[in-house]
Design brief:
Protein name: Rieske 2Fe-2S domain-containing protein
Family: Belongs to the bacterial ring-hydroxylating dioxygenase alpha subunit family.
Number of helices: 17
Structural class: alpha+beta
Pfam families: Rieske, Ring_hydroxyl_A
InterPro entries: Rieske_2Fe-2S, Rieske_2Fe-2S_sf, Ring_hydroxy_dOase_asu_C_dom, Rng_hydr_dOase-A
Largest sheet: 8 strands, antiparallel
Shape: globular
Keywords: 2Fe-2S, Iron, Iron-sulfur, Metal-binding, Oxidoreductase
Distance between the termini: 17 Å
Mean pLDDT: 94
CATH topology of the largest domain: Naphthalene 1,2-dioxygenase Alpha Subunit, Chain A, domain 1
Strand content: 15-25%
CATH class of the largest domain: Alpha Beta
Number of strands: 22
Helix content: 25-40%
Amino acid sequence: MRETRDTMAKYGRNAHAIAALVREAEVHRDVYVDPEVFELEMEHLFPNSWVYVGHASQLSKPGDFITATIGRQPVLASRHSDGSIHVFYNRCPHKGVKIASEPCGNTGKFFRCPYHAWSFKTDGSLLAIPLKKGYEGTGFTDTQANGGLSKVRNVVVYRDFIFARLSDDGVSFEDYFGESLSTIDNMADRSPEGKLAVIATPIRYMHTCNWKMLVENQTDTCHPMVAHESSAGTAVKVWKREQGDSTETPMAVQLYGPFMSPYEFYEQSGIRIWPNGHGHTGVANSIHSNYSDVTGYLDQMVAAYGETRAHEILGEVRHNTVYFPNIMVKGAVQILRNFIPIAVDKTLVESWVYRLVGAPDKLYERALMYNRFINAPTSIVGHDDLEMYERAQEGLKSNGNQWVNLRRLYESSEEQDVTAVINGTSERQMRNQFHAWAKFMTMDMDKHVEAAE
């Protein structure tokens, strides 16, 4: 069946054909709508990239575990008795049954397969097999199963953010992220103790669209004043009508009001791009710049970092940082959104809120409110984006034009794989993402073809 599929495939593992889907300032519609391209992403793009798995605070005690998916691969992360964190493929080496099916939990001192009760230490090593004498003299000790749970060998925990790369070969963590890690640094440094904590489950919901549409939208600054006019725009008008003599702007209005900022605001705010598809909006200014001060917070930060450093940390108010391939970090309000591909036209969104350890509760309250007001499908503005994604997924089936245009403020082909600060309404960060897409999609295709032959 697989041979038939490959023979009939439109793209197969043809690196040239895949790369041709991305031009300097255009992207072919198949990148969004072709099921074969999606399957190739699962097989190549995600294993070749460094992908977010979870946060170390979710593994606070020995035996704690979380589950995640990298492409099509289910993975399991756990905290071992010595405090180390390990990431495994989430399948028993015996018959392939998933070891853990829950999003998180505590397994105690070992994992136990629910099918035949093979058990494994929390570092993945094989602990026990029922009726083990039945394997004596069978050569079992020389098999992969005797090694326990298969480990993901490339794992980095950076400021408690857990990243993994499934491919044994590829770009190192440091080279992959480079200076872009400054957004994670800033988010963690906003805690007087330099620590973040996940203490609640995320908002989870499904979008009927390709995952890359959500990633692009994070640095699309030409849509808020248009797509959100009927929602945030109406809410702002109602507030102005009803505020009367009030001089205090409610937190909710502070959160959704800036979405109605004009093009000039976003132009001047700027976008910073980094190599390998990473970048962020809000360089000089952002929609998070003018929130009300929280009593006592600045004093805590000054005590922790000194006055100069405290003002540097809090003065960095980046809007959305895209970490290629599929997460967005919003440091100023401590939110991470994970866009998990399910099918070519189906994406699961997880929107996580982090607590600033040691900071006033009001900051966590504001982050939770932002998540519900802006990111949830029932929010003030989130459903507007969902409507646009679904329309785009349908519209791209049209044969009238097979290319998506990303030419706004395009200058030259030399804009690839560089660090730069640009006009805040440029589509260059989207182009940056798709150049990275082509790079990580194709980097191992020749090797796979040689192996198949």
